[in-house]
Amino acid sequence: MVRYPVVAGVLGGALAAALAGCGGDAGTAPAPNVPAPSGPGGPGAASSAPGIRFEECAEKAGLRFRMAFLRPEQGENFKINLYDHGSGVAVSDYDGDGDDDVLLLNELGPNGLFRNDGKGNFTDATVEAGVGLDDRICVSAAFADADGDGDQDLYVTTTRGGNAYFENTGGGRFRDATKEAGLTLVAHSEQPVFFDADGDGDLDLLVTNTAKWTEDSFHERLKYWRGKATLSELIASEKERDVFYRNDGKGRFTDATDEAGLKGKGWSGDVAVFDMDGDGDLDLFVCNMFGSSTLCRNDGKGRFEDVTRAVLGRTSWGAVGARAFDYDGDGLPDLLVSDMHSDMWIPFDMDPALVEETVKYPGFWTRAVQFRMVTPEAEKEFDALAKVRRDEVLFGNTLYRNKGGGSFEEVSDRAGWEVFWPWGVVEGDYDLDGWTDVYIPSGMGHPLWYWRSPLLRNRGDGTFEDVCRSAGTEPPPGGQLSEEVIGGKRTARSARAAATGDFDGDGRLDLVVNNFNDRAFLWRNVSAPRRWCGLRLVGTRGHRDAVGALVRLTAGGRTQVRQVQAAGGYLSQSSNRLLFGLGGADRVDRVEIGWPGGTAQTLEGVKADAYTTVTEPAR
Question: Considering only CA atoms, which of 28, 570, 25 is closest in space to residue 352?
Answer without folding.
Answer: 28
